[in-house]
Amino acid sequence: MNERSELVWQILSLAPLRDPGRLQALGEALDSEPDFSFTHTGRSDPPARRLKSGVAELLTESAGRQDPHQPEIWFLARRETPHIRLDIYLADDGRLLRDMPHTLNAAISDPRWFDSADRLAKLSGYLTRVADAAGAFYGYCAQSEILDQRQQQLERNAGPIFGGILRAGRVAEDLQRELPDVYWWNYFGPAFVERWSDRLDGLGASRERTPAGTVAVLGTESPFVYDIHAKRVDSYTWKAPFYAALGTDTFMHERQAQRGVGELVPDFEAHRRAAGFEASPVGKGQNFELRLVATKPTSVDAAAKWLARRKEITVPARLRKGASILYQNPDTAVQAGFVVEEVGEFAVLRFDLPLRKPSFFAVEAMPLCVELAERHGMLVSMDGQTHGQAPNVTTLAAAWEKANVEAISSSGEAIPRMTRERSDRWWHYMRRKADLHKRLGDDVFVPKLVAVAPGRRTEDLRLHVTWTDGVPLVLPQCDLVTLLEGRRPSEFKIRGTVEYSELRKALRPYLDSIEVDGLGELPLLKPERAKDAMPVFNEMPARSLDHVEVAPAAWVDVPIR
Hints:
Elements: E1 7-13, H1 22-30, E2 40-42, E3 49-50, H2 55-63, E4 72-78, E5 84-90, H3 93-97, E6 102-108, H4 117-133, E7 136-143, H5 144-157, E8 185-188, H6 190-196, E9 206-209, E10 215-218, H7 240-246, H8 268-275, E11 287-294, H9 300-307, E12 313-314, E13 324-329, E14 334-342, E15 348-354, H10 360-375, E16 378-381, H11 393-411, H12 420-440, E17 450-454, E18 462-468, E19 473-474, E20 480-485, E21 493-499, H13 500-507, E22 512-516, E23 520-525, H14 527-539, E24 547-550
Parallel strand pairs: 18-20
Antiparallel strand pairs: 1-6, 1-7, 2-3, 2-4, 4-5, 5-6, 7-8, 8-10, 9-10, 11-15, 11-16, 12-13, 13-14, 14-15, 17-18, 17-24, 19-23, 20-21, 22-23
Helix pairs in contact: 1-2, 1-4, 10-11
């Protein structure tokens, strides 16, 4: 160990920590070991205010003042040996549903204090209690040198992102596809335990199964196993049993073949269900509502099981009256909900689709509602109707569009506006973007299409992409293109912005095309033509652009009366 060595730990959770008593329980776990108790707190780093009564009281006092639509963060420090820094990030409900978990990140800067097996056991037990109280799905603790070494090895040996665009190996894990590595303390939540069952038995130096249905595994007896001579992430022989039992590609390493979402590890949907997270998409009064009434024996469980086949669906752990089955597409920001109204033999669901939204909300979500009703023998009724009717996409989408126009016109708010043609183009492209990346591979950049307000005027939004260092890319039809220079995100510098039409005209001799459903042919700068096109990137006149970005789908695309 050198003078800057630390023990670093991270705990991740998708549990409903805003539920009554949850933050208090987390605080009590953080207070449970006097040798690790915190002395200072604050809302900025480093925390300066003396913590008088413990973390439990701090979090309990804060609980009643929290807005579920806003994230929260606390910084904590222990200014006694062993010195500890901790930040607690409490995600808002929307971020939880967009796969952004709560996080606890900490570093202990006195690793030499852990000079005995008893003190290490005290730390591992403490971490497990904190993770259980947080309803965590994953956590780890490791020596800082091992974490730094892993990053350097992956950067040096892994395949480059975008086939050399950024000149860096992939170092950030995708926790819906893989785990970052095997460490000293490894914490696996209920969804992992359910999937892996007895495959965890016999792994590591020791294991603990907790009443919360989780398993904590010590990969080694001590965290201080850094080997300066290790050439690769998988050079440590003590990791091999984990690879053999749980799958070589379950963990990131240089020879890993990354798999699909949920293939080797549980996806975030599974972790949310295991944690009992439930959420309603939009408050009552902002939705277009339909009632789906079963005309033949149909259980809520059967309807939920059918819906859960879609990756955009989150089913709550308990399908009781009032529970929401949520549809959320992170690519297009479309959301909707199926609220349980009756759980008997003849299920009744309420379909909620938000108003004051772009027209594509109905285009994307209404077919799912209609297909659910058709497959389960349900009739559909709108407000004021005493009898249900056979579901029909065209009729129901038109009814939503009428209600949407009325809600927009009566709101009195200055809602950002985009033309219907641009809005539809954004939706078609963003829903195909991931598939387009799969088709083209890492050698071609597939940019994100972003809504912007030039001059900060939100009444006529435009579409915008970025192009970095003349790399091969798809060039979706938009209005503005910002040129970036630099090899890595931390080095990017804005050269300026150009009109899409002018850039496309200048690139025309170098462009091919690719067919995209709903959009027709999109211009494509292939890798073999990118070098020839570099003078266009380097010499294209660009200007500064005063603009603000507008969040996905945070606009309307109908005339406002």
